[in-house]
Design brief:
93 residues; mainly alpha
Length: 93
């Protein structure tokens, strides 16, 4: 049987890393291209579709990472509170 062990500090660190990644992804979505300069309607259409899909996909990834980050942060807080409560219970006995 394997053991899985995580500390609240580990969860908090991962939360911070994911939050930073979400910020970096925000700048990755800022692509500016003069689609009209492509010079052909089919190329312009393909570029517009690409940028729409890129933006939509990036938004989904950002949303999912934000959700994971929030849940990890919540878990870290809950575990920390539980550990504090247990420690307080042992000290009072």
């Amino acid at each position: 049987m394997s053991t899985f062990q995580v500390t609240t500090d580990d969860l908090a660190a991962l939360t911070a890393q994911l939050s930073a990644l979400v910020g970096e992804l925000g700048t990755a979505g800022q692509i500016q291209v003069d689609v009209a300069a492509a010079g052909h309607p089919l190329v312009e259409s393909a570029l517009e579709s690409f940028f729409t899909d890129w933006s939509t996909g990036l938004s989904q990834v950002e949303h999912n990472l934000t959700q994971v980050s929030q849940r990890l942060g919540g878990a870290a807080g809950t575990y920390d509170h539980t550990e504090s409560s247990v420690a307080t219970g042992f000290r009072s006995q």
